[in-house]
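Just curious. Invent one:
>
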Amino acid sequence: MTSTATATRSPYTAIREAFVSERRLTIDSGHAFRRDIERRHALRSLVTNPGSVLERHRRDVRAGADVLTTATWGVAAAAWLSTEPDRWMAVARRGIRLARLAIAAQKRVGEVAVAFSVDASVDLPDGGLTMNRLARVLAAEGPDLLLVEARSEAQPSLPATVKSLDTTRLPVWLSLPRAPHEIDWLVRSGRRTRLVDVGPAAVGDGPIEITRW
């Protein structure tokens, strides 16, 4: 009975329970790519060297990550190499599948969630059309949750980004850099906030605030 329950356990359920019980969650080291130069290097790896991305995911799972992230930045990186939208969507699929493969390889299926990280400020080709197409890919591939990253709650592109993801019917969480005014806003809005580690390899990087949208 126990093994069956474990086998059918949803990774999102595990993350949700940790959130409710106020247990600190660990986001993988990829979430710490803050500077543009770091992001571009990481994203090109997803396009040109997926094996290195898989190994990083496996390393983070071994280190105890609760969530593996893969990002819209990868879609932007594909756009740098190709003008064909199909290439961008293929990169999004690859990112999700590599994360799941790493979790399975470390025998932590049902324990570690895959989050597709959407940067609300990223300038994707074709604007809303690309986001709508991406939403269809996400609905088909089924990551466990969507992590929308924003610099503040007042970021102009945030509402449109979240709205474009409604069709996925996936849980959407908001990620903000930790700052007092942002925490205050989340509390005033009645949303629960949690302090989240940015990852085993993110030495010296600051924490972020996560809230369920």
User: Anything to note?
Assistant: The beta strands are 25-26, 67-71, 113-119, 145-149, 172-177, 193-197, 208-212. The mean pLDDT is 70. The first strand starts at residue 25 and ends at 26.
